[in-house]
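To the team - NAP complex, inputs and output below.
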Amino acid sequence: MNVVVTGGTGFLGKALMEQWAESRRDGWFRVLSRHPPAYALPEGVEWFPGNVSDSKSLEQAFEGAQAVFHLTGILSETRTQTYEKVHVEGTGNVLQMAKSAGITRILYLSAIGASMEAPSRYHRTKYVAEEILKASGLDCTIFRPSVLFGPGDKFLSLFVAMGRNLHVLPLIGNGLKRIHPVFVRDLANAVLMAGGNPETFGRTFRIGGGRIYRYRELMRVIADSLHLKVIVLSQPVGFLNGVARLQEWFFSSPFLTREMIKMALEDNVAIPNDLVTFFGMSPFPLEAYLEEAFPASDGRPG
Ligand SMILES: NC(=O)c1ccc[n+]([C@@H]2O[C@H](COP(=O)([O-])OP(=O)(O)OC[C@H]3O[C@@H](n4cnc5c(N)ncnc54)[C@H](OP(=O)(O)O)[C@@H]3O)[C@@H](O)[C@H]2O)c1
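Output:
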């Protein structure tokens, strides 16, 4: 199958292209983004420049494709890249270009929590994008993952760096909300399995990992796996909103935004977990990943 992947150079896109190349599937695999990837592409994968906010820029990459994997999404906004522009208008442009290229199959990367009633605009715009695609008449499959971890993530690696360098692991509020982290390669596998499978047409899959954690518990797991002596510190939401506001003013890629805080104050779990119930996988455990990815300098795990 000939596939074009919007946002295909990002964290999930990289795992997807690697697995596509390893499994030597038929057809071609094009990844589209605004900037060229900062790493070498696997054999058989080709990069195309394109911006989902500009339909015309998608034309060349979409030509001859049979399926679109629509991964483009942003966690923090900038002046030019807002949730409405990227998630909603961008999805409209991708859909329009898919239709004019004669493509009938689309897979979309949404997120657990996507809902019109969600507190965060990130989740509300993801939901609107889902609805646009469901109403399109194309064979559409939606993935709603919880937070992803794996090589190059901005999630576990951030906490590991804080634990190692500051000896503090911060919690947003009381840290009792639940999270269901999933290994990026497990999700990539599920997306590739769904690609040409008619049983997935018209379906929405909730994707989680092997275990549900409360944030507070996850911080302890990170500290224990890496043998770190840390303090797990609850931070008042009002204080963190102030920090986030400053970050948003002064940094182009803030590590904390007010939208992220809203998301962390909601449960983020996949029940049922379709990675297991539909795709039949055993999720790769987060604890095993921590030991593999962050070995101690003396050779001990952690
Ligand atoms: N990572 C997670 O934990 C997680 C959890 C749930 C859902 N998701 C969803 O899964 C999808 C993939 O996430 P990810 O972690 O791989 O994201 P990512 O690493 O931030 O990658 C985003 C990709 O989108 C591209 N992009 C951004 N703006 C674009 C635009 N206007 N036009 C075209 N391409 C654009 C980026 O490249 P350029 O900047 O060069 O354009 C990059 O290739 C997203 O939709 C995200 O919302 C992720």
